[in-house]
Write the C-alpha cells for this entry.
Amino acid sequence: MAQGVWTIAEQRDGEIRKITYEIVSEGRRLADALGQELTVILLGSNIKDTAAELGQYGADKVLVADDSRLEPYTTDAYVSVISELVKANDPQILILGASVQGKDLSARLAASLDVGMAQDCTVFAIEDGNLVATRPIYAGKAYAKVTFENSLPQMAAARPKVMSISEPDSSKSAEVVDASFTLDDGDLKTKVVDVAEDEGGKVDLTEADKIVSGGRGMKGPENYNILEELADLIGASVGASRSAVDAGWRPHSDQVGQTGKVVSPNLYIACGISGAIQHLAGMSTSKVIVAINKDEDAPIFQKADYGVVGDLFDVVPALTEEVKKYL
Amino acid sequence: MNIIVCLKQVPDTESQIKIGSDGRSIMTDDIKWVMNPYDEFGVEEALRLKEKHGGEVTVVGLGPKRVTESLRTALAMGADKGVLVSDEALDGSDSLASAKAIAEAVKDLDYDLIFTGQRGVDDDLGLVGATIAELLGIPQLSLIVKVEVAEDGKSVKVERPIEGETLIIESTLPALITVQKGLNEPRYASLPGIMKAKKKPLEEKTLADLGLDSAGFGEGARKLKILELTPPPERAEGKIVEGETPQEKAAELAKLLHEEAKVI
C-alpha cells in the first residue's frame, strides 16, 4: 500500500531555493495529519551537504540523487530519476513547488507516472486519508477543490509564496540516504548550453515580497522611474499591466495578469491600473492591495484594501518620501 | 520542416466566470470562446518557421464542434490543414485523457516540432503539452520565449526564462515546445486568408476513428476529480485613503501601510 509523503526539493547551483522550505514545511503538516513519514527528494551534483538541514523544517528522511548529469536541471534527467524512485518506493503523496522548474517537472513526471496532477495549489488538506487540494482556475476567477481517483501517488504542486515556512528546529536533522537509480545517457535529449543572468538581479515577480505595478496611466515607458524609486526603497519588484506591456513600455516578463504572471506578494501597489478582469485575476491573492488611480470608479478600487483617488504622478513621489519615515 | 500546433478553445480572458448549478463546472451561456492566447504564439511561431524552412503546418484541436472556429482562425492565419478530435465521450475528460486522444491523433503524422501554449487560461494546469510529449516519447521544452531551429533541421535551441535567469537549452528534434508571451506577436488573419481558410482541409475524428475506447475518457475516467468550484474568496472591504492634497493622502497611506497593514 502506498505510504509516505514525498516532496521534491528545488536547488540551483547547490543552493536550496525558498520554495523547498515552503513545501517541506507543508509536507510535514500533511505527513502529521496522516501519521506518516516525510521524505524529501534532493537531486543535483555534490549537494549531499545541504540535505540534513532539511530536517529542521520537518523532513524525516532526505533521499539524495547525486550525479553530475543532474546539474543543471533538465526535464529528461530529473523525470527519469524521480520516476524510478517513485515506482520503487510507492509514496502516497508527492508534492512539488510550482516554480518554473517545478511546473515543467511536475507536468512530465505526472505523465510518466500516468497520474492526475493538481498544479499551482494554494491549500492542501487531508480528508478521509486522501490529499485534497484547492487551486485557482481561470487565473483566480474561480477556485477548484480537487482530489484523486485511481491515481497514486496523489500529486500536486504548491504556488510559490503561499505555504508558510515552519520555524526551523535546529535540534532536528534528517536521515540522509543515497538514492539508487540508473540514468541512461541515451535518454538525455536536452541540454542546458548557457545561462543568462537577468539584468539588475531583481527578484522575479512570482517570488517578490512586494510589487509596485504600473498600467496605462503611466503614460509612457519613461515614467516608470518613479515606480522604480519607490520599489527600490521598499524592496519591491516592478510589474506592469497587459496594456503597458502590449504598448511596448515594459518587457513581457513584467506582465501581471491572466496571460502573464500570477503573483501573491505581501504588498501589491497598483498605479494607474484600472483593473481589467484579466489583471485582477493575476494579483487578487496578494495579501495587501493598494490602488492609486485618478478615476474613482476604476474597478481596481473594489479589490483594494487601500485606495488613493489621485494623480499617480503626485501621489507616488509623495509616497516615496513618506515611507522613508518608516524605514 | 513539418509542424503541428495543438490548440485549445477557452473563454475569452475578459469573461466573467460563474459557477454552474452542479457546483463543479462553469456556466457557459454568456461565454465568448476564443483560441487560447498562448496557443496563438504557437501558431505564429510555426508559420514563421514554415516561412523560413518550408514544410507544412497542421493545427489540431480537441473539443466540441465550436472548436472548429479556432482551427479556422489558425488556418486563416496561414496554417495548412486542421484536425478536430471531437466526440461526446470526451466531455469532462481531464488533461491526461485529452492528451492521450491528441497524441493518438498526431502520432502518425510527419512532424519535426509540436507547439502548444504553456497552459490553457481556463484550467491553468499546463499538463497537456508535457503529456503529449511523454506519450510520443519526445523531449519537451516548456515556457519558451525564443526558438531557433538549426540549419540542418535536426536540433533546436530555445530560451526559457526561470526566476532571475534565462536558460538556453538545446534539444534534438522532434520535440514539443510549450510557448509563452514574449515569443512573438501573433499576426491577424487577413481577409484573403479568411477566404482561403474556408477551403483548407479540416478533418474531424472521433475516438473510434482513432481506435480509442471511449471508456478511458470523460468525467468517469478522470484521475483528477473536481469536488467543487467556488467563487474566489471575498476580500474584506477596503478603505479610501482620505486627505486634502496628494501629500496628505500619501502620508496617510504610508502610515496605514506601516501601522495597520504592517507591510512597510
